[in-house]
Design goal:
single chain, 504 residues, alpha/beta, Leucine Aminopeptidase, subunit E, domain 1, Aminopeptidase, 9-stranded mixed beta sheet, 6-stranded mixed beta sheet, 20 strands, 33% helix
């Protein structure tokens, strides 16, 4: 009996987003016109504010209303809020609201408020707007019957080249986010490790990235005991995918370009909990457990189009976590890639096991810093909810770069500590450490401490626990239900601005 059939069939997540472009002339024929309105009512010729006052529309951020336009044209009025408080993220949110409101139209025009250029850089506004438009227009419809879908968005503005440059960059970022969302939303039955690896490899090679795929034999030869241990209960073989981006020039420069950043992502294609089986309700969304890996892989595929000057490598272990007849048992011990032994007391704390290997492999390349993203713990959701990711790390400068990138990208993170006094909770009587702490408290922190054991001392490293943010249970204006693609925008901003972290 072959428990590991050679599944190589890929699937086809496209990261499809509407065409988004800028017109400096007259609006192009469309089905609807979007107008972005601030509460100061600047640059709003043709808007009947008396009518809007009567229906209670105040142009607050995130609000919209549809009103009749000329002929059959529909006007979608979207609020920006107080003009003095507008930021790029305001336009990102407004773009998402506009696209969701216009989702049933084939083509929309967006009347850009040119007066806003007095307050903000047109490139930043254009990029944020396009990111929002792409996000709001997203739908995962691979298994749905055909329906009307927003395909063409024209931003009408006199700002021309500067705004257009930002819009085009924003569309690239939007495509990357959509690709990550597709990877997360794809069911575990079709997004097997081999199929997912094949799909990503094809896209990465088309983008011009270096690709290295490792099968189960190569993984075993490399000593990735954590990945092997988690995969033991599965009928699908594991994969380990490594992507590399090398900018032209290649060497480190005084401005930080050419610095080497490593990205690591958790790629659990479906998490049943293994023998520490989850409840039925707890499994319903567990195709999302590849959210960290999806964000890393999607961000990598966007780097060539953004012409990033830093060297970037990515490492993503891929397996499902199943309770098959040969599954690892609570109490089993494995040896990780860096030689440390781990006693597994809960097989549902599996993400940290595959990340242990991936972090160690990434460290072997001696990058200037490592960041990992993972849907790692429910504990971080208890602490921070579903809109904020937990950030922890060993280098103040690097953590600051990540926080700055996340703020610019409109993705909320909050730094939490890695208290050394909690490390003893991971002590094991039979191995170098165990995979869970000793009680129910501080679970996100002990998970971070576990990961830190697989990063060499002195190497800047940070961990983003995105367990709450990688998936949305509600149809929010910014994301909608399902995979959110959280982390892609932060990673791309981080990579673009990355510099070798100062010590400490």
């Amino acid at each position: 009996m072959n428990l590991h059939p050679k599944v190589s069939r890929g699937f086809a997540p496209l990261g499809d987003v509407p065409e988004i472009r800028v017109s400096a002339g007259r609006p192009i024929r469309s089905d609807a016109l979007v107008m972005l309105l601030d509460t100061d009512r600047v640059g709003t010729d043709g808007v009947d504010w008396g009518y809007l006052d009567r229906i209670g529309f105040e142009a607050k951020p995130g609000t919209h209303v549809m009103v009749p336009g000329d002929g059959n044209l529909v006007r979608i009025l979207v609020g920006l809020g107080d003009r003095a408080e507008v930021t790029p993220d305001t336009f990102r949110r407004a773009g998402a609201v506009a696209a969701k409101a216009g989702a049933k139209f084939g083509r929309i025009n967006v009347d850009f408020p040119d007066a806003s250029s007095e307050l903000l850089d047109p490139r930043a506004m254009g990029q944020a707007l396009a990111e929002g438009l792409a996000s709001g227009a997203y739908s995962y419809d691979r298994y749905k019957s055909s329906e009307v879908k927003l395909r063409d968005i024209v931003v009408v503005s006199k700002l021309g080249r500067e705004l257009s440059s930002g819009v085009q960059r924003g569309r690239v970022v939007g495509e990357a986010v959509a690709f990550a969302r597709d990877l997360v939303n794809e069911p575990g039955g079709s997004a097997t490790p081999a199929a997912l690896a094949k799909t990503v490899a094809e896209r990465a090679m088309a983008a011009g990235l270096g690709v290295k795929l490792m099968d189960e034999k190569a993984i075993a030869k490399a000593g990735m005991g954590g990945l092997i241990a988690v995969n033991k209960g599965s009928t699908q073989p594991p994969r380990f995918i490594q992507l590399t981006y090398q900018p032209s020039g290649g060497s480190k420069n005084s401005d930080g370009s050419g610095a080497h950043l490593a990205l690591v992502g958790k790629g659990i294609t479906f998490d049943s909990g293994g023998l520490s089986l989850k409840s039925g309700d707890g499994m319903m969304t567990m195709k999302m457990d590849k959210g960290g890996g999806a964000a890393v892989l999607a961000a990598m595929c966007a780097l060539p189009a953004l012409k990033v000057r830093q060297r970037v490598s990515a490492y993503v272990p891929l397996t499902d976590n199943m309770p098959g007849p040969d599954a690892q048992r609570p109490g089993d011990v494995f040896t990780a890639h860096n030689g440390k032994t781990v006693e597994v007391l809960n097989t549902d704390a599996e993400g940290r096991l595959v990340l242990a290997d991936a972090l160690s492999v990434a460290a072997d390349a001696e990058p200037d810093a490592i960041i990992d993203l993972a849907t790692l713990t429910g504990a971080v959701m208890v602490a921070l909810g579903q809109r904020i990711a937990g950030l922890m790390g060993n280098n103040t400068d690097f953590s600051g770069q990540i926080s700055d990138a996340a703020k610019w990208a409109g993705e909320s993170v909050w730094e939490v500590p890695l208290p050394e006094e909690y490390r003893s909770a991971l002590d094991s009587p039979v191995a170098d450490l165990k995979n869970i702490g000793g009680d129910r408290y501080g679970g996100a922190l002990t998970a971070g401490l576990f990961l830190s054991e697989f990063v060499p001392e002195g190497m800047p490293w940070a961990h983003l626990d995105i367990a709450g943010t990688a998936w949305s249970d509600s149809d929010t204006a910014e994301a909608g239900k399902g995979g959110t693609g959280f982390g892609v925008r932060t990673l791309l901003r981080l990579v673009e601005r990355f510099s070798v972290p100062a010590a400490g």
